[in-house]
């Protein structure tokens, strides 16, 4: 699964945010199930930043978010993300995609 977190940060806060974003990425990268990730800044709008991470599955990502180190070093930065869906499934040819349906609890 892919997680895309986008952030809008005033330009004057850019360098400080860059350090925070790298610290958040490092905390996530240390968790089981992490496969890859990158940080970036938009080439046309320097106030727009992104953190993308790839995980073995959604459970690994959710468990990572509940770890102490991630809560301490990543969640404060992740809380600044734009309010939009961030988890994506891999949609390569031949893969089964998630079906949106009500799930039974029983």
From TrEMBL:
Q: Which UniProt keywords apply?
A: Monooxygenase, Oxidoreductase
Which SUPFAM superfamilies does this UniProt record tie to the protein? Dimeric alpha+beta barrel (SSF54909)
MF terms (GO), sorted A to Z: monooxygenase activity
- Superkingdom, natural source: Bacteria
The record ties this protein, via Pfam families, to: ABM
Q: What class of enzyme is it?
A: oxidoreductase
Q: Which residues cross the membrane?
A: none
Enzyme Commission (EC) number: 1.14.-.-
- Where in the numbering of this chain does the ABM domain appear? 1-90
- Protein name per the record: Antibiotic biosynthesis monooxygenase family protein
Q: Which organism is it from?
A: Nocardioides plantarum
